Amino acid sequence: MTPFSLSEDHVAIRDMARAFAAEKLAPDAVRWDEEKHFPVDVMREAAELGMGGVYIAEDVGGSGLGRLEAALIFEALATGCPTVSAYVSIHNMAAWMIDRYGSDAQRRRWLPGLVMMESLASYCLTEPGAGSDAAALKTRARREGDHYVVDGVKQFISGAGVSDLYVTMVRTGDEGAGGISTLVIEKDTPGLSFGANERKMGWNAQPTRQVILEGARVPVENRLSEEGMGFKIAMAGLDGGRLNIGACSLGGADAALEKSLAYARERRAFGRSLAEFQALQFKLADMATELEASRSFLWRAAAALDAGAPDATKLCAMAKRIATDRGFDIANEALQIHGGYGYLADYGIEKIVRDLRVHQILEGTNEIMRVIVARALIGR
Ligand SMILES: Cc1cc2nc3c(=O)[nH]c(=O)nc-3n(C[C@H](O)[C@H](O)[C@H](O)COP(=O)(O)OP(=O)(O)OC[C@H]3O[C@@H](n4cnc5c(N)ncnc54)[C@H](O)[C@@H]3O)c2cc1C
Q1: How far apart, in whole angstroms, are the C-alpha atoms of residue 57 and residue 65?
Q2: Domain locations in the chain?
Q3: Are 320 and 246 in contact (CB under 8 A)?
Q4: C-alpha angle 193-196-201 in degrees, rounded to nearest 5
Q5: Ligand 1 atom closest to Cα of 364?
């Protein structure tokens, strides 16, 4: 591939995911939002097409693809439902952490089920007292023989209560990033429980709960890599996770733009179609331009991450901020173009706006993306 065009394989992957989104996600997305339904069965169908382990190695059943392909897939799925696409992306991120940092025995134990989404994974970093400052996390894992005894609360965990595996950052050592380790905690672990499903502005087609650990006994063999590696593992997962979330914003924005184009052609005011007003034409042109610019940059960051480029973390942070900020703005403009109808649930636009809003907050807020970029530019 040249940086500026997709190969035939890329186009085929994107079209496959787009067709799935149009057939299996879009028709039910508004209802799932209203009913707070988490469509696990539909996600398993996506997994049958290889989307449960996009960048997981093939020896454990993964698709063995790269970050650009992942960006294409999550953007395409998000044209049908940003919330479902975002959960599938988090699942992929957590599975990748096991693939990349797990032992061969751990990979063979967990990944075949994860790639098929027979088992689901959540990523547990945030705590009530540690969000942006994640290295301040307090969940304590105390070693007792061949187990850790874990106490603490993880906040805002996507998929919690339904997921089978919780890839959890815990403190095994001193204060700071170097005292953190990663444990894979299984759902049936005694001492693990969940808070109530949070009532949210958007992302209603997936649950968000606290993960509560009270004397939870987790086998030492469930630790990924060495003690003290947890913060590095968590941040490595997020580089790709940020691309994925950015891609979900692009997909939501793309769907909102398509709806706006159709609406502007058909809706009439002052004796002509909305599409004939130059002010709206310019608005649509700007939306399409900003979408394309964000997409091109996200692909550049994805290529850098795949290549292991030294500036990949900075580029992923830049891409996440641009794609999620511009994606939200485009969806919000689309709502405006729909007038009062954009505010009604039936048109599916207000749901996209609500869903995309949180992408500016999670997987590192967009302020934290600026912190990462500034550190790369001027040092700590
Ligand atoms: C729906 C939803 C799902 C989520 N899913 C998950 C999940 O699955 N797993 C998980 O681990 N977490 C998850 N999160 C948590 C999310 O990542 C955090 O909310 C986010 O990192 C921000 O942390 P906080 O909410 O504690 O805000 P805070 O860290 O308290 O930040 C508050 C404000 O201060 C700003 N701020 C903080 N520090 C700085 C700074 N140094 N410079 C400038 N501004 C700063 C922030 O940008 C923000 O605007 C989810 C959150 C939501 C809402």
Answers
A1: 8
A2: 8-115, 121-226, 231-378
A3: yes
A4: 140
A5: 21
Torsion, CA 138, CA 101, CA 186, CA 108, rounded to 10 = -170
> Terminal CA-to-CA distance of the chain, rounded, Å?
36
Quick: pLDDT tens for 134-174. Answer: 999 999 999 999 999 999 999 999 999 999 999 999 999 99
Question: Which residues have a Cβ under 8 Å from the Cβ of 259 and sit 6 or more positions away?
Answer: 334, 338, 347, 348, 349
Q: CB of 112 within 8 A of CB of 146?
A: no
Q: Tell me the backbone φ, ψ of residue 272, rounded to 5 degrees.
A: -150, 175
Q: How far apart are alpha carbons 67 and 79 in whole angstroms?
A: 18
Residues lining ligand 1, CB < 6 A?
90, 122-126, 131-132, 156-158, 200, 203, 208, 358, 361-365, 367-368, 371
Distance 138 CA to ligand 1 centre (A): 16
What is the Cα 44 distance to its own chain's centre?
17
Distances (CA, A) of 337 to 46, 269, 289, 290, 365: 32, 12, 17, 17, 28
pTM beyond 0.90: the answer is yes
> 3-class SS at 265?
helix
Angle at CA of residue 235, ends 134 and 166, nearest 5°: 75
Q: Which CATH architecture has domain 121-226?
A: Beta Barrel (2.40)
**Residue 337 and residue 264 in contact, taking contact as beta carbons nearer than 8 Å:** yes
Distance 235 CA to ligand 1 centre (A): 14
Going by CA atoms, what residue is nearest to atom 44 of ligand 1? 367
Return the structure tokens found at 375: 């550190």
Q: What is the pLDDT of residues 227-274, one digit of tens each?
A: 999 999 999 999 999 999 999 999 999 999 999 999 999 999 999 999
Torsion of CA 53, 54, 58, 59, to 10 degrees: -20
CATH 1.10.540.10 is held by the domain 8-115: yes
Domain 231-378 falls in which CATH fold? Butyryl-CoA Dehydrogenase, subunit A; domain 3 (1.20.140)
Distance of alpha carbon 78 from its chain centroid, rounded? 10
Amino acid at 12: A
